[in-house]
Amino acid sequence: MSARPTKAALDRATLKRDIARAKLDAAIATKRTAILNRWDVLEQTKKRRQPRIERQTEDKQLKTYDRLSGINLGRDLERNFTSMRSIMHQLRTNVVGTGPKLRVHLRGEMPDDPAVRESTSRTLTQWASWFNGEWAKDCDYRDDQHWAKHVGYVLSGVIREGDILPWFDGGHIEDSGKCGFFEADQLATPDDPSNLPEPWKSLNVEQGVFFDTWGRVRGYACSRNHGVMQDKVANLTFIPRGDVARLIKFQLRPGQLRGTPLMLTAAADMQDLYEMRAKELQTAKVGAGVFATVHKEDGGIGDLALKRGWDEAGGVADGATAPAGGQTQYDRLEAFAGGAMEYMSKDEKIDIKDFNRPSVNFRESYDWTLRSAGAAFGLTKTYSSMHTEASYTAFRGDLLIAWASFYVYQKDLERQYCDWIARNALGWGVRKGKIDAGGLTVDQVAYSWDWTKQPSPDPLKEAMAAETNLRNNLEDYASLLGPDWRKRFDALVEQMKYAKDPARQLPLSPWEGERTAITFDDGNGGAPLRATP
After folding, report:
1. How far separated are the first and last CA of the chain, in Å rounded?
2. Which of 74, 178, 187, 241 would bridge 141 by S-S if both were Cys, CB 3.0 to 4.6 A apart?
3. Is the distance from CB of 435 to CB of 451 less than 8 angstroms?
4. What is this structure's pTM?
5. Helical (H) or strand (E) element with 442
């Protein structure tokens, strides 16, 4: 006979049971929480695009072949689709315009000595004037494009193709001080990495970009050909990263070797619009050339022609003296009825076509899709469709939203491209004696840029705002007049001297005080020629 369990054993069993139940309750609660707190969009039963866990970098996601296909797609859309060309034109016009103007500043405080301060200021102004004038007009190594065009190429290349590789010849080729580009479809991987020269052989290479074991970019392999995934070493130019070249790109994720084209996001919408509009226009073109169709059971010419004096073979019918004889009867009948009459046999039917093309709903659908595609670039309806709002408030709102994106584009161009080019060009200009160093080096100066600004729907309010900003020291004349503000002031002084010549007796200048007048010694005691209120 088995012994009865002791109280201690029962307590241990009860404790184990309670622990097991607690674990089960916790598991059930965890499962219930997971069910309640999940993301609906990630539920696999939904009829949506199914997500997949990514285990590769963005460069692997957009492989070389797909990248080249995307580049071709973007170029094709801009070449042949007017709406895409308009969007790219608006981006270049508003972001770049006629090109940014360089302003050069001394890092830190200006010298206390007034003479040294004035000399330094003039040196910095000279540097900026040389860059904006002489260098910018003749900066293209391969052609005669202005530097403003180069900035536009960078913007277009990044948006349409993901990246672009500008280079500067500061001794790498001929020490010309000029620059050029390799396009995104010219970066290629060497077909035989073992045949590379040093130090490239010891580096990793992917999609034309060389990098070390830490992922730091060291240089680029650029082909003389376009649209190649790999190329022979003999066809490649190896360019180090740094002062010689810099890959300008848009990154979707950190650590990308190559850029991601912004246009790819909107390409599907733009392709749909391109094809829809082409079909609508083609059907409208067909409809414009077709009035009606005649349905006949008999392939012959019918009773009407016989009655008018023609037989089925096209000759004169038996018993008819002339073709015009039968026609005359119908002409008289039409004259009696007061208008033209159509005569058909019983087996003929006329179907008058009514082509409602383009569709009355097409414009609304087109504008809606175009607005969605333009938003991918930061454009509002006004810039995407080139159609302004009737309301001043709505139009100004469109401008403010779009220009917030334009300012970001401008700042990205400054940081990635413009500052780099200015440093290289000014350094080359000082070294070659094109500009007076004035005791300064490029390491002692900083750069800022005057870009195209948001247009004002109300110029009067804009002028009043500028005056208020100047009065409250919120803006200076350099930002209003540009980097050549000193020259413009000097020119203004010369104009005022000319205007105040007594021989001209011009009226009061707007630059005089409110209660002063221009007086000339005309022999009458210097009486004012014109008094102000």
Report:
1. 129
2. 178
3. no
4. 0.72
5. none
Element (H, E) at 249: strand 248-249
In terms of C-beta density within 10 A (0-12 exposed, 13-18 middle, 19 or more buried), how is residue 206 classed? middle
The label of the residue with tokens 């770049």 reads 96
CA distances, 49 to each of 40, 62, 144, 500 (Å):
13, 18, 49, 76
Dist CA 285 CA 350 (whole Å): 21
Q: Where are the chain's structural domains?
A: 54-188+242-262+377-457, 292-352
The answer to whether the Cα torsion of 266, 269, 271, 273 is positive or negative is negative
Beta strands, E only, 47-182: 101-106, 163-168, 179-182
Around Cβ 325, how many Cβ atoms within 10 Å? Answer: 13
Own/partner long-range contacts of 460-464 (Cβ < 8 Å, ≥24 apart): none
CA distances from 424 to 60, 164, 433, 448 (A): 33, 18, 14, 15
Task: Give the pLDDT confidence of 225-246 residue by residue, as tens digits.
Answer: 999 899 999 999 999 999 899 9
Question: Tens of pLDDT along 416-450?
Answer: 999 999 999 999 999 999 999 988 999 999 999 99
Contacts by residues 152-156 (CB-CB < 8 Å, ≥ 24 positions apart): 152/92, 152/96, 153/181, 154/248, 154/413, 154/417, 155/91, 155/92, 155/95, 155/96, 155/409, 155/413, 156/88, 156/91, 156/92
SS (H, E, C) 450-468: ECCCCCCCCHHHHHHHHHH
